[in-house]
Structure formats: structure tokens, C-alpha cells
Request: fold
Amino acid sequence: ERAFGQVHVYQQNREAKADLAIYDEKKESIILSGSVSLKKEKAWVAAAQVTVSIKDKTFEASGEVKANFKL
Reply:
């Protein structure tokens, strides 16, 4: 399954936004690509791709990754 446009994924206290989302039912994951940004609390991460594991409740950023957070 695919979703295009302003795609938003929410899981626990995290949020991810992207232009494209591909859902893999067998792996129980969502692959986000295209202007991907990930927010956890007050920190933002931009990445080429983010894989969301529904089963493991994890987000994994890959490709060029940039973080913006307050210390």
C-alpha cells in the first residue's frame, strides 16, 4: 500500500512526515521517503528515508541525516 502527499505517521511520542509512505504488511513496517522529518519531543531529524517498525515501535533514519535539537 502507498500513500502520497503530506503523509503523517504517529507512534507514541514520535511523529514523522514525508511525501511518500509505503506500507509492508509482512515486515510490519512503513518506509517514508521524500522530505522526511521525524520529531521526538522537541528534537527534529531530517533524513532521506525513515523506516517505522510497527512491531518493534522504532523509527530508523537513513541516508543523509540531519538533527536539530536543544541542549
About this structure: The CA atoms of residues 15 and 61 lie 13 Å apart. The two ends are 38 Å apart (CA to CA). The chain is about 0% helix and 75% strand. The chain has a mean pLDDT of 91.
